[in-house]
Amino acid sequence: MADARLIKALERRGFLMGFPDYTSSDEIIIEILKSSSSRILLGLSILLKEEFDYKRIITKINKKQKEEFDKAILISEKMYNKENIINNLKNLIKKERIRQKFLKEEFEEFYNAFKESQINLEKKEQRTIEKQSKLRLNLDLNKSLKILFSPAKIRIMNKIFNHEELTNTELKYYYRAISNINKSVLNPVLQDYLRIIEITKKESEIVTR
Q1: 32, 44 in Cβ contact below 8 A?
Q2: Which of 26, 42, 190, 202 could bond to 113 as cystine, CB 3.0-4.6 Å?
Q3: pLDDT in tens, 138-166
Q4: Where are the domains of the chain?
């Protein structure tokens, strides 16, 4: 397996390694339990609220790993209750008679890792929403631009927007064919006039129905 830092560095530069993903939560849980990293073990806190097959998992791990698994289940059950997260761990603990002691410090470690992952997930979701909103705005902008301007004019305005230098021919074309349209669109009197037309048109449509 390639070094994790190397993989991240390549992915940031657009090179994807294309590793196959896990097909179920069970597989991820098993790999976490087999890992020698105590940090990765804390990742169980974000997985145990999902569906998983306890009996299948414990057949794939050794005694020590099962102890860690049972401890993570008990800690997660307490943690989910604290956070009012719906889960089935209480029934599982009762059914499988899961008994494993854990320290207050261990609970805090799992809990902090869980809260950190929730914050990171919320940030990721917020970035996705912002990206989608920006995309919708761009689509609306492009639609409006195509109504008012030819492709050649849009290309020149995009160059200006992106701080790209115009050729002398493009600059002359801008002042001759684009600038006056922009000034008209920005004219507040024209905007008020068009707004009144749109409102009046809608009112007329309501009356005629």
Answers
A1: yes
A2: 42
A3: 778 888 888 889 999 999 998 998 889 99
A4: 4-123, 150-209
